Amino acid sequence: MNVIRSSPLVIILLLFITAFCMPIIKNNKRVKVLSGTSLGLSFILSIINFINVLNNGGFSYRIGHYDSPWGISFYIGNVEAIMCVVFTLVALLVMVYSYMTIEKEIGKKRVNLYYTLVNLLVGSLLGIVFTNDLFNGFVFLEVSTLAGCGIIVIKDEKENIKATLKYLVLSSLGSGLVLMGIAFIYPVSGYLDMDFIGKSIQSLEGANRNLIVISASLFTIGLGVKSAMFPLHVWLPDAHSSAPSPSSAILSALVLKPPVLFLIKILYKVYKIEVLREMGILNILLVLGSIGMIAGSIFAINQKEVKRVIAYSSVAQMGYVFYGIGLGSKLGVIMAIFHMIGHSLTKSALFLIGGSMIKKTGSKYVKDLKGIGREMPITLGLFTLCALSMVGIPILPGFISKWKLAIATIESGKIYLMGVILLSSLLNVAYYFPIVINGFFGHENLEGKTYMSKELRKPKIIPIGILVICVILTGVFSIQIIDFIGQGF
């Protein structure tokens, strides 16, 4: 039992230790085997951890000799367990795809460095998900930022360097704000463990109350920068669109989510819902989430490059997440978490597909993808399924998120915001459907195109196909997933 309870820590240690072994291995095939083995074992351990939580409930895990609040602890509940499964699965499938493509994108000499950075990134992201300690979470945030910058700049082209610098500067600003938040909350509470902080600050009044408001604001803005909350998203489109395709998939699917989960933990464990309503932070998140849902989609419509369309779509989709949190209801937060799961699976597949289309056509522009459905029918078919989920077609997880968020909106007495969800869904159609329609239909678009002439080989299709199957299964089993998340919240 204790061995199973140690699995979250073992996953992180496994990823970190193998990451530091990779730079000394000069054979790229062996590096890929080590990467695949470490991620595969991490996925198996995440399944074991998930089953344990499913059968026995959430638990705290002490790191080191001292219990909280003096030592560091992880808390692994339903949300942490399911996110661990999603993260390790997505990372494994994206990396399997990358083993066949990465050398052409970054060169043979940087392969071991690339997989070192990926393992560090995934391990640190899981650390953010698991930790119950503010400063420990900050350290994992910093590791993930540096590793995230690494998998963007590793392509070593002008636009990558520029995008990385923008990401590094803004993310460092976000980190600074998070650190300031910790600096404000620690003197008034005396703790870094979130549960203990929550208990100690409930009775504070006067000047200390102002410090609490300031610290909550700093956490919200700082983690909002890292998770691309509108209008703090300006680093995202350049970073996601210029990075190698597997990096884009990891950045969009995984890197944006742990800061949001960390923020949810801080808001609900440290400050509690009554204080949040009093401070007005939930209203701010609701407004920014609503604007992000609309603005992100409008930006996406105006993009000419396919990866930038998908990148700006992430801004809109993260708007749904902050919208759900901002509703301030249990259902709203549950659907924000469910939407992150669906988005992780869907967006990783979309970026891999987008990257493969760019490689096969030799063009990154949407206008050059006309007729691609005849040349790459299976690939565009998988893209279509993901696009339908993003738009919100029934059964798929995008629809479930929007439907349940609409119910949460009505239950919260904010029915006037229903228009935001409807408008955002229509805007999603405006930038995804032209790619699908022009790819599959139109005499002029298909003229001169040869059937299956540019289709991906089976080994490349399989990881993308599994991701798309997982998207469908997430929608089919949405009731069970939502119930599971709700039981642990």
TrEMBL record:
<feature type="transmembrane region" description="Helical">
    <location>
        <begin position="280"/>
        <end position="302"/>
    </location>
</feature>
<feature type="transmembrane region" description="Helical">
    <location>
        <begin position="212"/>
        <end position="236"/>
    </location>
</feature>
<comment type="similarity">
    <text>Belongs to the CPA3 antiporters (TC 2.A.63) subunit D family.</text>
</comment>
<keyword id="KW-0472">Membrane</keyword>
<feature type="transmembrane region" description="Helical">
    <location>
        <begin position="461"/>
        <end position="482"/>
    </location>
</feature>
<dbReference type="InterPro" id="IPR001750">
    <property type="entry name" value="ND/Mrp_TM"/>
</dbReference>
<keyword id="KW-1003">Cell membrane</keyword>
<feature type="transmembrane region" description="Helical">
    <location>
        <begin position="415"/>
        <end position="441"/>
    </location>
</feature>
<feature type="transmembrane region" description="Helical">
    <location>
        <begin position="112"/>
        <end position="131"/>
    </location>
</feature>
<feature type="transmembrane region" description="Helical">
    <location>
        <begin position="74"/>
        <end position="100"/>
    </location>
</feature>
<feature type="transmembrane region" description="Helical">
    <location>
        <begin position="167"/>
        <end position="192"/>
    </location>
</feature>
<dbReference type="InterPro" id="IPR050586">
    <property type="entry name" value="CPA3_Na-H_Antiporter_D"/>
</dbReference>
<feature type="transmembrane region" description="Helical">
    <location>
        <begin position="309"/>
        <end position="327"/>
    </location>
</feature>
<keyword id="KW-1133">Transmembrane helix</keyword>
<feature type="transmembrane region" description="Helical">
    <location>
        <begin position="6"/>
        <end position="25"/>
    </location>
</feature>
<feature type="transmembrane region" description="Helical">
    <location>
        <begin position="248"/>
        <end position="268"/>
    </location>
</feature>
<protein>
    <recommendedName>
        <fullName>NADH:quinone oxidoreductase/Mrp antiporter transmembrane domain-containing protein</fullName>
    </recommendedName>
</protein>
<keyword id="KW-0812">Transmembrane</keyword>
<feature type="transmembrane region" description="Helical">
    <location>
        <begin position="378"/>
        <end position="400"/>
    </location>
</feature>
<dbReference type="Pfam" id="PF00361">
    <property type="entry name" value="Proton_antipo_M"/>
</dbReference>
<feature type="domain" description="NADH:quinone oxidoreductase/Mrp antiporter transmembrane">
    <location>
        <begin position="132"/>
        <end position="426"/>
    </location>
</feature>
<feature type="transmembrane region" description="Helical">
    <location>
        <begin position="37"/>
        <end position="54"/>
    </location>
</feature>
<dbReference type="GO" id="GO:0005886">
    <property type="term" value="C:plasma membrane"/>
</dbReference>
